[in-house]
Amino acid sequence: MAQHTATYSKIISPEEYNRIMTNEHLYIAVADKVIKDFVEKEVCGKTNPEVIEIGCGPARITPLFLQIPNIHLTAIDYDLDFIDHAKKVLKPYNSRVKVVNADVSTYVHSKSIDIFYSQGFHHHVQKGKVTERYLKNIYNQLKDGGAYVLGDENPAAYSNLEDRLLKLIIWYSHIISNAKKLGFNYLAQEEAKTFLDDLYENYDDEAVKSKEQIDLILSWVDKIDEASSEKIDKATFLAENLLEILRKKRNIKEVGDTTVDLSRGDYKISDTEFRKEIENIGFKVEKVERVGPSKDIGGLYIYLLRK
Ligand SMILES: C[S@@+](CC[C@H](N)C(=O)[O-])C[C@H]1O[C@@H](n2cnc3c(N)ncnc32)[C@H](O)[C@@H]1O
Candidates 32, 121, 138: which one to mutate for ligand 1, based on the most atoms within 8 Å of Cβ? Predict the structure, then answer.
């Protein structure tokens, strides 16, 4: 298992992160707006609702939520460099938002909360007890009837852990191939690295990414994505082949560059598995919207979770 520490900013700079995620990713900006719509509907009619953004990173989406009148916002992340950048981005809104460097699993707010929201955060929290601890912490601080609006990337449903890896290949191939087609080569490369992190998380503790593996993924994604839009079985067959080659090229030697050696700790799960996680805490899925191609390929899911 990769170490889950606050090192995201050692993998990508805050500026580059904000730029590629908002301007280049095929679905993220659309999903951001859906999250905002969900939050806006929730706060409607409430005076000064207490809202917390968890895993805010370098405040990529925070200004969007400050467009909502009256919200009393706090943004939290445990990565100090990202938080420093967030403070700079949010300086013009100083009176309306508080930026806090804290771990979401243990953070305790001074008041009870109307709404928590997060985007692309949930899959970074270590599975099992740590995820449970963070969800319970959120749940306990919500007012009765309060909501957690959560946006995250979900691959298609899988039948077992090996099948999960194939579904991951199909999902990432879609994202990476489209980034390449649009000429966003840096995004394509970062997504290929993220895919490798996801492949090893909870599966292979020692393995680290290599340039050869990244290049291999970049050279396979187009045919896999093309196949997945025609016939999912064909895409699955290609994914099996790619997985086999990647396993043969397993690497345990770091390259000496934190942007490659460190893992983002991604572990993306299907809609089905996600529901089990949150229902176990007591949340109820009240609403869900998918941004993305299809259930067979995956998508960005936005959930309204009710306490
Ligand atoms: C992919 S980034 C998402 C940033 C932002 N939400 C966005 O949509 O651009 C995930 C963020 O979660 C933060 N994070 C992960 N685990 C955390 C934890 N336990 N407490 C606080 N922040 C955490 C990371 O530092 C990182 O900035």
Answer: 121
Q: What is the pTM of this model?
A: 0.96
Q: What superfamily in CATH does domain 8-155+268-306 come from?
A: Vaccinia Virus protein VP39 (3.40.50.150)
pLDDT, tens only, 265-290: 899 999 999 999 999 999 999 999 99
Helix (H) or strand (E) holding 173: helix 161-181
Mean pLDDT within 58-73: 96
CATH 3.40.50.150 domain extents, the chain: 8-155+268-306
Please report the pLDDT score of residue 1 as a whole number: 46
Name the helix (H) or strand (E) containing 145: strand 142-154
With vertex at residue 174, the alpha carbon angle to CA 305 and CA 124, rounded to the nearest 5 degrees, is: 45
Distance between Cα 190 and ligand 1 center (Å): 16
Q: How much distance in Å is there from the Cα of 53 to the middle of ligand 1?
A: 10
Q: Is 93 in contact with 78 (CB distance < 8 Å)?
A: no
